[in-house]
Amino acid sequence: MSALNTNLENLLNIAQKKEKMGIGLMSGTSLDGLDIALCRFTGSGLQTKFSLINFITIPYIDAFKKEVQQVFAHKETSLEKVCLLNEYIGSFHGELILQALEEWNIKAAEVDFIASHGQTIYHAPRRLHKQEGYLNATLQIGDGDHLAVKTGILTISDFRQKHIAAGGEGAPLALYGDVLLGSKPGENRILLNIGGIANLTWLPADGNYAGIVCTDLGAGNTLIDAACRKYFNKAYDEDSKIAFSGSVNNELLNALLHHPFFDEPAPKTTGPELFNLAYVEDALRKSNTSAIGNEDLICTLSAFTAQTITDFVSQHFKADDIQIFTSGGGAKNSYIIDHLKKALPQVIIKDTGELGIDPDAKEAILFALLGNEALCGEPMAIGNNPAVLMGKISFPL
User: Fold this and answer.
1) CB-count exposure of residue 125 (10 Å: 0-12, 13-18, 19+)
2) 1.20.81.30, 1.10.238.10, 3.30.420.40, 3.40.50.1970: which CATH number matches 174-355?
3) pLDDT tens for residues 273-293?
4) What is the pTM of this model?
């Protein structure tokens, strides 16, 4: 029997280590920056133990955001730009990792793996694209080989493709980590992430895997942020100041809520391909509210995000026996959180810091967990999600 090559030997050695150190990367649809979570793992599956060693979000400069926005969520775009950005983002994220490691005084050789989400540029579930003969699809760029070569660290990337290949929609992938991080026997919990898109994981008190639900809910911050950029030249509504200065326009809110997506059964996924400024403009036209003030628009979009969350929770779960733990940028949006608390007065709402999980770091931690599972886990059947191990492996040499 011939010997394994060096890369495979190193992979086997890492997979068999009792304790691993891995980096999880998350760059979301908000394009605010790269989340880098350095974690320590022992075990796998339900026996996984982890600790967050360091976390940082390195903000993107405006020039980079504009480059990605040229190809992000557009049906038609420059294929050359997509090609160039695929390489560039992989190398660029590698540079940011090395920058973070230097700041933390940690050598790259001490890190066993990187788990990279990449940068989503298009998400196309069948329910949205409706093209005959085509199934679910999604595309994340930021090539793993470039990350691995730039950093010298084994890289696992492109997690969403296996989920789709096995019959899923490629999202939300929070399910696997949420079960490991958030489940507690005897407590009904919802882990609610409000990023560009809002999603939740329902973790029933009885621990019955068949009863777990993980689904997108609709727009999170994406419409609010887009409107803030267009009408206020701001990246987002800091401290919800704009929302609180306006009033909800009920005609517009009802028009925003009137879409087949909200009546479709869970689990379901969506993205800025649907929830974008064109969606808002269509609702403004249908509700004859195009003349409303910009502050009222931001207020109504904030109420829209909150209402889609409360509607789903109220319709699917008993609100008198639930704890909600929030994460993502929307967890800091006081208008949204206030709305949730008023609409769901019997629900206890906290952020994931109560679980010992930094709300800002949660998604990056989840990808680090998926990376650990890819190396030493086994497929887990949870809810109606495919039981697969996700991620493609890139060697640094």
Assistant:
1) buried
2) 3.30.420.40
3) 999 999 999 999 999 999 999
4) 0.93
